[in-house]
Every structure is written in C-alpha cells, then in structure tokens.
Design goal:
This protein has one domain. It is an alpha+beta fold. A three-stranded antiparallel beta sheet has the order 1-2-3. It has one helix and three strands. The chain is elongated, with a radius of gyration of 14 Å. The two termini are 18 Å apart.
C-alpha cells in the first residue's frame, strides 16, 4: 500500500498552495512529489520577495522533515 506523507506546504497566493509529499511504495524507491497550483499564479511584482520566501521555506521544511524521518529509520 502506498504511503503519502505531507512534508511541507506554503501559501503563495490566496488561492495557490504548494505542497511537498514523500510517497512510499513497498519494494520501490521513495519519491518526493512537489505539487504546484494547477494554473498560473498571478502576484504583484512587489510581492515577489515574500512569495519566494514562502517557496524556499516550504522546501527547507520538507528537507528538515525528510531528515527527521530518515533519522529514525
């Protein structure tokens, strides 16, 4: 049975969320799935620094959570 673990999420706009999942299939290598909004996300240029920060923070959190999972295996 497949196991799907959400490692991190970030809201990059009111209607746009990115998520990062660890997907485990028995007998196969683990995979990371980055889910981006299904359509283009429009932001004001002045919000680019904050949006970038959210994306980088979500990636960093996913890395931390993955390391924590690996540490107990």
């Amino acid at each position: 049975m497949q196991e799907n673990i959400e490692l991190a999420r970030g809201t990059i706009a009111p209607d746009a969320v990115i998520t990062i999942h660890l997907v485990r299939h028995p007998g196969r290598a683990d995979l990371l799935v980055l889910r981006w909004p299904g359509r283009p996300t429009v932001i004001e240029p002045s919000k680019l620094p904050a949006t970038t920060t959210v994306i980088i923070a979500a990636l960093a959190e996913a890395r931390i959570q993955l390391a924590a999972i690996r540490a107990v295996e």
